[in-house]
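Why do we care about 3D structure at all? Because function follows from shape, and shape follows, mostly, from sequence. That is the central idea of this module. The next example makes it concrete: a single protein chain, its amino acid sequence, and then its structure expressed as tokens.
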Amino acid sequence: MTEITRDVVIIGAGAAGLTAANDLKRAGLSVAVLEARDRVGGRLWTDVIDGAMLEIGGQWVSPDQDALIETVAELGLETYSRYRDGESVYINAAGELTRFTGDIFPVPPATEKIMVDLIDRLDAMVAQMDPDRPWEHPDAEALDKISFEAWLYEQTDDKEAVDNIALFIAGAMLTKPPHAFSALQALLMAASAGSFTHLVDADFILDKRVVGGLQQVPLLLAERLGDDVFLGQAVRTLEYSDGGVTAISDASTGSAGTGMTVRARYAILALAPVLYDRISFVPPLPRLQHQLHQHLSMGFVIKVHAVYETPFWRDKGLSGTAFSPYELSHEAYDNSNHGDTRGTLVGFVSDQHADDVFRLSADERKQRILESLSHYYGPEALEPVVYYESDWGSEEWTRGAYAASFDLGGLHRYGADLRTPVGPIHFACSDLAGAGYQHVDGAIRMGRVAAEAIIGQARA
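And the structure:
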């Protein structure tokens, strides 16, 4: 068992933890970052699968994500725009495909009007919300007691309009069925991106990618920390008092190392809140935190990567962007790598659909998913040269994707306490963010907030 002493111990080597560690070190505080995995990055993971570079985790950079954009630039990384030339495709409930341009799906005029009205209404409600304080929205309590799906049906009985508006929050973002989270949680998701309109606009929310992969952000941040990052260290016990903290780790499964004991003045939990219960706190966390954390759960989505010899859809005049709340893969995009002559499609299978296909064999699941993609792009989509499914639900140190959200009533009831430190223990991850919620941008923001708080306390 290795024993070391530091000013701050950070548990989790994702973007939040590594940002905090770098900020703390620049301020003259000593740090140790303990990571259970054998790699840094958390939910950022760029890997080569069968000769193809794939973004297994997060990958996009949006124009509003100032913290991420600043970090990418400061690290000397380059970005490139997602391919978007040509027409998008939409499939309705009858299975009919329509090519279109713009943000509004090609639906009947009456449905289109309802969708536009709903987007305008949601934008007006989002404008009343501070994403860092959603519980202070004028209608927070009422909106948190009704599911997003039920709220939509209170506005209209047009099922296609409801299905499509719900898609932008449920399938595309929270990755839970729209009956499983509140209207207030939906507004927070939109407010975190600036507006509901931004979520509707794929060219905004999925704007750019980093050349070489987004995992370079945590990799380069970790490089600056050198020997202060310890991989394969699963923290099992965190003792704390007014005098400081002691983090005790076991060597993770497969690690050749031994466990560690880190004594520090402060700790930052920089991991998803659904993982807090993997740590034994001594003394136990306060009752409020015990209750709060039980009302948060991860969503679930399969990110499907299909690589082809060429981006054949471009020859058909298609951008690669595809949507349908009635397809197994509810959305898909051209995800071809910078400078690569091959074409890559990325599709997403969300919430209950993901549950269902994981009850199938791997071969049958692949067949079903590729068949769904072929409905958008044609029979060529059935024959990728590389196929891979990102399954974060099976990851021991993640347990879902993209992030944790509250159940009905949880955000209004507990949101104000989500980031509140417990003695010397601070919390930082994308799941706790306002702006940039469940994105790398939010993780960086929360890392900065936690570091700033500790620096202020250390200097007091």
